[in-house]
Amino acid sequence: AQTVTQSQPEMSVQEAETVTLSCTYDTSESDYYLFWYKQPPSRQMILVIRQEAYKQQNATENRFSVNFQKAAKSFSLKISDSQLGDAAMYFCAYRDRIQGAQKLVFGQGTRLTINP
Amino acid sequence: EAGVAQSPRYKIIEKRQSVAFWCNPISGHATLYWYQQILGQGPKLLIQFQNNGVVDDSQLPKDRFSAERLKGVDSTLKIQPAKLEDSAVYLCASSSGTSGYETYEQYFGPGTRLTVT
Hints:
Order of helices and strands of chain A: EEEEEEEEEEEE
Helix content of chain A: under 10%
Largest sheet of chain A: 6 strands, mixed
Oligomer: heterodimer
Shape of chain A: globular
Order of helices and strands of chain B: EEEEEEEEEEE
Radius of gyration of chain A: 14 Å
Distance between the termini of chain B: 37 Å
C-alpha cells in the first residue's frame, strides 16, 4: 500500500521569507500524481500544486514550487515570500495514475505559522 | 460555481447514538468521496462513489458505517451506533474525473465536525 510521510509536524517562518515543507512517499507504482493541499483554520481543503510523476519538470504556481525527486521518493514544497494568509495545515497527498479508483493518500500534515 | 456543500457543520452525540451527514457535490461531478480526518492526522478515504455505484469502500467500518449516493448526486453517510473513536471531521469531496489517468482536482467541502461523548 502507498504511504505518505511528513516528518515536520510544525514549521514557522518570518513573513516575506522562504520556507520548505518536506514529504516522502512509498509506492511500487511508476506512474502517479503528487499534490500539496492547504487546509486553513476554516477547514476547507484547497489544492495548492500538483505534480505528475511522468513529468521531469518541477511544478510551479506563483509563489509555490516543488522539488520532486522521483528516485528518492521525495516531494517538498517551497513557499517563497511567505504571507500571513499562507498560515495553515499543509498536506502532501498521493494518487495512483491507473484505471479505476483514484483515492488520495494523505500524509499527517505540517502546521505552518507565519510570524509577522 | 457553487462548491461542495455539507451539513451539519457540527454535531455532538453520545456514544451508541446514530448520526447522519449530508453532502451535495459540485454539479456534474461524477465522483464523490467521503474522508475521515481524526484530529492531528491527514484525511483517510472511507468510501468513493462513481455516479451512484461504490468504487472503493475498503476502509469503511461496515458494521457501523453506511453510505449511499442518491440518483448519483447527493450522498449521506451514517454511523450507527457511534463510538468515541468516531470523533473526527468528516470531509466530502467531489471530482469530475472518473479515471485515474485523468488530471483532475478533488474539491472538498467544509466538513462536519463530529464529537462523540
